[in-house]
Design brief:
Number of domains of chain B: 3
Order of helices and strands of chain B: HEHEHEEHHHEEEEHEEEEEEEEE
Number of helices of chain B: 7
Helix content of chain B: 10-25%
Largest sheet of chain B: 7 strands, mixed
Mean pLDDT of chain A: 48
Mean pLDDT of chain B: 89
CATH class of the largest domain in chain B: Alpha Beta
Structural class of chain A: mainly alpha
Shape of chain B: globular
Largest sheet of chain A: none
Distance between the termini of chain B: 41 Å
Structural class of chain B: alpha+beta
Distance between the termini of chain A: 57 Å
Shape of chain A: elongated
Strand content of chain A: 5-15%
CATH architecture of the largest domain in chain B: Roll
Helix content of chain A: 55-70%
Oligomer: heterodimer
Number of helices of chain A: 3
CATH topology of the largest domain in chain B: Nuclear Transport Factor 2, Chain: A
Radius of gyration of chain A: 29 Å
Chain lengths: 81, 345
């Protein structure tokens, strides 16, 4: 990837080599676009699709005897009741 | 917390309410202390910041169902004796284990369409969680309000998504979902765990269901109230007559206004009266066009020929653009153009 970036930079300042530089840049943009597309497609298909076992999880955690210490400040304006 | 004791009578909840000084001392005490907390409500940034910096807490993800209890303040202490019960407590804050979906009257949507809108809604939730704009836009209605802010990205940590309630007719569908997410510590970001709720409104124009509005991360009571307002419209399977677009009157597009006094919104009524209007707003904090997800409110038409007028509703973030939908009894819908407001303070 870095070679794609550094190569055109060598030609900076040369008017005669503007077209090759533009070609490099175009190729670089196409490469980035294709990588972005591939990434998007990967995300699209890599998304899990499972159900939430909420009731089971909460029920299991508190079904047995145990304890939970919950700390709340008295002064809080948003204190839960 | 009486509700917790009612839900789990055999489980001992040690609910400690302490003065500010004692609270801070207990919060930063040794984990060997027999009163060291498993869960804490830390709404003071000077108390919370060191805990976040040290990665010793996991913050709540999602919204609590309790009023006046800021979700961002709930944390699970990693060094507590009952970390797994602390996680279950976060889920309990978001949704009661005795929760049941409300009874709905708008139920002419077919079982096949229910399966389709649920699948699309789950995909929308996951696309948001993964920050996958491409996946989201592929299932959005062309008329949906575009938004850029996907919130906290929890890619790879969504444990699951479940539709809780689905209703509608053959043209409009409404889905309420729950998603459990967990993100372990990644410097410099915080760790999260909890349950978030979302609502999705979908439209079928004859070529398949698309997402018309995605309402992420609302508290369960808020989303139930919003969906209940749509259910009360009594959508039916009447003829597919077109609905005229609402014409917005005030404020003018790009009006320069102050936050106070609160501006009013005005639009013409459509004829015949629709079943409801829906106000849709979006904000763009920072002034650049990086739009938030939509906030919507259902508004009943009133028997008058005069334009409708209401105060711009907002709490913290004033919306910078707005539009109005008109929905017929049969579920046909039109959307007005967007209008922007340029707040000057």
């Amino acid at each position: 990837m870095k070679r794609w970036i550094s190569s055109p930079l060598k030609f900076q300042g040369s008017t005669t080599l503007m077209e090759p530089r533009a070609g490099y840049l175009l190729g670089f943009v196409v490469l980035l676009a294709s990588l972005g597309l591939a990434k998007g497609q990967h995300y699209l298909w890599d998304i899990p699709n499972v159900d939430v076992p909420n009731k089971v999880r909460v029920g299991e955690a508190f079904s047995q005897r145990g304890s939970l210490t919950v700390l709340v400040p008295k002064t809080s304006q948003h204190r839960p009741n | 917390m009486n509700e917790f004791k009612s839900d789990f009578p055999d489980f001992h909840l040690d609910f400690q309410i302490l003065d500010e000084g004692d609270f801070a001392e207990r919060l930063h005490s040794s984990p060997q202390d027999p009163h060291f907390p498993d869960v804490a409500f830390v709404d003071n940034d000077s108390d919370r910041r060191p805990l976040l910096d040290d990665k010793t807490v996991v913050m709540m993800w999602g919204q609590t169902r309790f009023e006046f209890a800021d979700s961002w303040s709930w944390v699970i202490l990693r060094q507590g004796r009952n970390f797994e019960a602390g996680k279950a407590f976060m889920l309990w804050l978001a949704q009661s284990p005795r929760w049941k979906p409300m009874q709905v009257s708008t139920a002419s949507i077919s079982p096949a369409d229910i399966a389709k809108v649920q699948a699309i809604s789950k995909k929308a939730v996951l696309a948001i969680a993964y920050g996958s704009r491409r996946a989201l836009w592929s299932i959005m209605d062309p008329a949906a309000g575009h938004f850029d802010d996907f919130g906290v990205e929890i890619a790879g940590t969504v444990k699951g998504v479940q539709p809780l309630l689905t209703f509608g007719n053959s043209r409009l569908a409404f889905v309420l979902l729950a998603e459990v997410g967990q993100r372990e510590k990644e410097v410099p970001l915080s760790s999260w765990f909890g349950m978030a709720h979302s609502a999705v409104i979908l439209r079928n124009l004859g070529d398949g269901w698309k997402v018309l509005a995605f309402l992420p991360d609302g508290s369960l009571p808020y989303l139930e109230g919003l969906l209940g307002a749509f259910d009360h419209l009594g959508l039916d399977e009447g003829p597919a007559e077109a609905v005229p677009k609402v014409t917005l009157l005030a404020p003018a597009d790009h009006a320069q206004l102050l936050h106070h006094p609160v501006p009013y919104l005005e639009w013409t009524q459509v004829d015949p009266n629709p079943a409801a209007y829906v106000l849709e707003t979006q904000s763009t904090p920072g002034g650049r066009e990086h739009w938030s997800p939509s906030w919507i409110k259902v508004i009943s038409p009133i028997p008058t020929d005069s334009p409708l007028r209401m105060w711009m509703p907002f709490d913290n973030a004033p919306p910078q653009r707005w539009r109005v939908w008109a929905i017929s009894k049969s579920g046909i819908l039109s959307t007005s153009d967007w209008r922007k407001i340029d707040f000057t303070n």
